Amino acid sequence: MEMSWACRPATAQRQAGRNGGAPTVQSRVPRRASPRTHHPFVRLVATTLRPVRPYSDLLQHRLLHPMHRFVIVGLGNFGASVAEALYSHGHDVIAVDVDEQAVDDIAPHCSRAAVGDGREAATLEEIGAEAADAAVVSTGDDITASILATMALQDLGVDVVYVKVISDNHARIMRQLGATEAVFPERDSAFNLASRISEKGVVNYVRMGRNLSVQELVVPEEWRGHTLRELDVRAEYGVSVVGIHETTIDDMIVPPNPDDTLRHTDTLILAGTDEAIEKVADLASATAEEAE
């Protein structure tokens, strides 16, 4: 493939064309902009995905949580929404699409936006995909493009690849190719996918209001072997444990027995404000990372 115009921020491409300059990978400095309208499925309740954890101070977020690099291939509604949500978490997000307008639209909402063919390993390498912690492939209804993009990412050493799929057969193909997960946009929201791959430890959530949610988390290491009565979670963290999920037998105990001992195979169903659950989510995330 001719690479003369690959992997360029759209505005930079037009300028280079006028000036006769050689194409290079350039970062677009995000400008202040109004929030992008999310994909219609963004607010749906997902059964396996986690909530975006709000931070008013992006710097504080980056100090408390390590920044990761994510590559988004395909900037339709779903891919663009994932890119924006990951960027809102404070991560390094590189977005690529062949559509110049889509690249211009997402540029204020990610670290770098580039025009290029995400099916080509050379394009992905030029934008720095080989250093990514994970990638999201969202190429619309083009199954072939999703296959080629996934294989190209794997060739560059990106082992964690989430692929938007359009059918069960498409999902089966992607799993056989080694995709980390096949994502059905009608079931899983872009907003939640971004949260799940951005953080560890939170399993599930239901948004109850602007600042209220119900979330399912792994049991933090320091809570294991203790009872809810001993932990006094409501007094210490300001959240309520409304249920315990015994994952080994897939049994949900609602309401939980306050004298039952918490085990590493359990997950907790917590209700409270985002800020309160955030404190427990930090403990759960640390536990999940140590287990890897």
Automatic annotation (TrEMBL):
Residues annotated as domain RCK C-terminal: 200-286
One Gene Ontology molecular-function label: monoatomic cation transmembrane transporter activity
Annotated region (Disordered), positions in chain: 1-36
Highest taxon above the source species: Bacteria
Residue ranges constituting the RCK N-terminal domain according to the UniProt record: 67-184
SUPFAM superfamilies: NAD(P)-binding Rossmann-fold domains, TrkA C-terminal domain-like
UniProt-listed GO biological process terms: potassium ion transport
PANTHER family attached to this UniProt entry: KTR SYSTEM POTASSIUM UPTAKE PROTEIN C (PTHR43833:SF7), POTASSIUM CHANNEL PROTEIN 2-RELATED-RELATED (PTHR43833)
Protein name: Trk potassium uptake system protein
Lineage of producing organism: Bacteria, Pseudomonadati, Rhodothermota, Rhodothermia, Rhodothermales
